């Protein structure tokens, strides 16, 4: 009997010294692909499909079961719950998840005029409510303003802190995309505050809010190096907008070296949604989406 317990004790000790299967296996990051609605903006604006068709098209045409809405593609800028319920019903029908609403034209969150800044924050509230109703994880906002870097940063930190507090109540993230700004003459300028990775990452660091993050877009860094910009924002990134414009004969993106970009992403601990966003006109929107999805799948390494 004594020998039996000695052997049993030895077995237990040796078993305790062995690494578990979990410890032997490296954690693998799951590739989560979503479809940015802007990829189909021409079809929607041209009447070939509607915002309500978006979940069906994502699932049936592209095999993508997560979608990112764009506020300006909602008819009449509506956030009516009856309409939103139709979107939920469409998602349920096709097994699609609503991940995000990209909010545009609601004012500059980095506006250095306090009255305008506060109004911009207030303008976003109904879209936070809409995103929560749809079961989204986040809303995308624009973090720009006119003025010195210091002044815009201070205004943006205020706005993002206020929106982050509201997002927390709704179980949402508020994420900033490097994006352009509407100029006083009505033109669009991509060379804005948020398109500088250093400026935007510093503002996010200063905000330091658990419900505030970033959505780096491959194509919107303007004069700032896009690879460095993604590096700057990855520590704060809740999602990635994998934008394409044109493709070469091998199906590679012309404007962005996808291997180089995904080497940077793969080396990080990012594990959020990777959004397909085609914005070119050399091929159809459908073909551009398929080519972009193929590139993501090619270069993502778990």
TrEMBL record:
InterPro entries cross-referenced by the UniProt entry: IolE/XylAMocC-like (IPR050312), Xyl_isomerase-like_sf (IPR036237), Xyl_isomerase-like_TIM-brl (IPR013022)
This protein's name: Sugar phosphate isomerase/epimerase
GO molecular function, one term: isomerase activity
Boundaries of every Xylose isomerase-like TIM barrel domain copy: 58-292
PANTHER family noted in UniProt: BLR5974 PROTEIN, HYDROXYPYRUVATE ISOMERASE
Xref: Gene3D superfamilies: Divalent-metal-dependent TIM barrel enzymes
UniProt-listed SUPFAM superfamilies: Xylose isomerase-like
Pfam short name (any one): AP_endonuc_2
UniProtKB keywords: Isomerase
Top-level lineage group: Bacteria
